[in-house]
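Can anyone check this?
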Amino acid sequence: MVPDRHANWRVAAAVLLTVISAGHCAALSIVWDYTYDASGFFAAPERRGVLEEVSGFLEERLDLYSSAIVPSGVNHWAWSATNPATGSALSIPDPSALPGQLTIYVGARNLGSGQLGSGGSVGYSASGTGSWIDLLSSTNTPAAYKPFAGTIAFNSSSTWHFGTTDPIPSGANDFYSVAAHELGHVLGIGLTGSVEAWQARVDAGTSKYTGSLGTSIYGGLIPLIPDDSHFDYGTSYLGAEFLMDPNLTVGTRKNWTAPELGVLVDLGFVAIPEAGTLGLLLAGAIGLMAFRRLRS
């Protein structure tokens, strides 16, 4: 279910022009890190290949305006995360982040019946100069979210389908769909307790998403589930169910819809215009850790 590449682009074009002209952006680079894949879930090249397709879809469509973050001298930080293979707390001292780079630690463990994946942002603690602290704080503001790392755990006990083009066998869960969904959480969608740009675009009283580009493409405010962590069950666009609603039907595949790509631009990512067709793209991601889960 690839988003239709021609719907409502005129509505979104003016907003896109404003965003794209805002400044120079680094190419979004999503790095899948297998350091904590203790069980060897990703030892098979085909499984890593699916993740590359998931990230490649967004890397072709989005850029990320983020600065290099390199600790030195008195400036230090440590990432705080959940080990995807064990569920235990994890601390990563003084990592570096390149402009536009997003590192995602992946692994697998038994997540229990009905739960396919769990993904979210990486928090941090820091010490150093005022300018260093300001640099880190700038990654998470109401205006824009600029994630540098996240973690995703997949359910090792689920029945998975790892293909991306062939039909999905009856009774299997589509790995591409789940990976894309959890990546959406890492990019900020649904992280109500930690991502300020998401919080700023959610009306908690009515559980509606209010961001300008996402709603322009969708045609109105977008309904959320009561805790604002996902779009509402069954929300769809041009016949395609939203990737970021809470569930995935066994034996089916989902991908990004145009309004959801618009939501990512609302959150601070920048759309890459196609040659000669500016605006067609969208029809065609720190503080406390937060994790959202996809259920079968």
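Reply from J.R.: I decoded it. Residues 9-295 form one domain.
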